[in-house]
Specification:
This protein is of the alpha+beta class. The chain has 10 helices and 11 strands.
């Protein structure tokens, strides 16, 4: 469950009261009054007691505040006089940067990320806004893509935990092509997002190799009590450095050459397909001959197919033929739709 912003404001209010050197050892009544003044509503002793307990003991909240009650002073104090849940003081320029960064961070929260991430964003957002306020006349100036919720994303955290703690998992995987379910024993290494879809990469005992599975096709994952297998020499950064996408068609990097129209050339020069992309030749008509050095992948084939109106593959021949084959299939399918 995401952290309640109102609760977080109460936490910071309690923290301010305890840290107030002019009025040390605030009583329960002092804390209730301060919270009511801050939020404009009434609170019970039980609510504030629960807040103090959460600040002291809730590991997910992360404060682990050293709060104690002094019977002699009839009030609360920190055993560590330097402790506070607030961040270090910031200058005006840093505050403005932090508020802007918080606004940007909140645009990435939502259904495309985990609940723990959303809770962290809520915590940062509430703290910054409560401390530094909101600019008047504020309007939205950043609007990110909000993709539809992906089926299977509720499994994200179980695979994140399994990959982080090196725990094997078994699950059912549905093949779109074969229309069949397969039982897989899997050793997850990495979670990767590509074009708003999530994939898990790891060692499949069934395939006896490192494989990629879309989490939208995974069902009923179960944590296994068995030894984790980490393939020797596997490096996720190197594994995908020379791959566009997540489904490589081979393990050998090749040079792929293609010619693009002047219109597409502008886009690809400003946003290259891959860091290896380079211009091989400038044509007089504005066309460009480009090349990349990549391991061929299913996603690269799809990308070339989508751009085929303005792009022609010149080498290797088999990749050009594969793109032409797809175009012919599209024409043939047109008859049946």
């Amino acid at each position: 469950m995401s952290l309640n912003k109102e609760a977080y404001i109460r936490y910071t209010t309690i923290d301010s009261c305890i840290c107030n050197q002019r009025k040390p050892y605030p009583s329960m009544n002092d804390l209730i009054y301060a919270c009511e003044e801050k939020l404009g509503k009434s609170f019970t002793i039980s609510t504030i007691q629960k807040d103090i307990k959460a600040m002291k003991e809730d590991e997910a909240l992360g404060f682990m505040a050293p709060i104690k009650f002094s019977k002699s002073q009839n009030g609360y104090f920190y055993t560590d006089k330097e402790y506070t849940i607030r961040t270090v003081p910031l200058n005006e320029e840093e505050v403005n940067a932090l508020v802007a960064a918080t606004d940007l961070l909140t645009t990435f929260a939502g259904e495309r990320v985990s609940e723990n991430f959303n809770a962290a964003v809520d915590k940062i957002f509430a703290s910054v806004k409560e401390t530094y306020g909101k600019a008047s006349g504020k309007r939205t100036i950043v609007q990110t893509e909000n993709p539809p919720k992906q089926r299977g994303f509720e499994l994200f955290e179980i695979f994140f935990k399994a990959a982080k703690e090196k725990i094997p998992v078994c699950f059912l995987h549905f093949s779109y092509k074969k229309r069949l379910f397969n039982s897989i024993i899997f050793h997850p290494y990495l979670l990767k997002e590509f074009q708003n879809k999530w994939y898990v990469i790891g060692f499949s005992e069934s395939h006896k190799s490192v494989r990629t599975f879309g989490i939208d096709r995974i069902m009923d994952p179960l944590i296994l009590n068995k030894e984790f297998y980490l393939k020797r020499g596997f490096d996720p950064d190197k594994h995908f450095k020379d791959v566009y996408g997540v489904y490589p068609l081979s393990d050998k990097k090749i040079k792929i050459e293609f010619r693009v129209t002047d219109m597409l050339a502008n886009y690809l020069e400003s946003q290259p397909l891959h860091e290896s992309q380079k211009v091989d030749y400038y044509h007089e008509d504005g066309y460009l001959s480009l090349s990349v050095e990549l391991i061929p992948s299913l996603e690269l084939l799809n990308q070339f197919y989508m751009l085929s109106e303005q792009l022609v593959i010149t080498k290797p021949l088999w990749l050009r033929e594969e793109t032409i084959k797809r175009l012919k299939m599209a024409i043939r399918n047109e008859k049946y739709i």
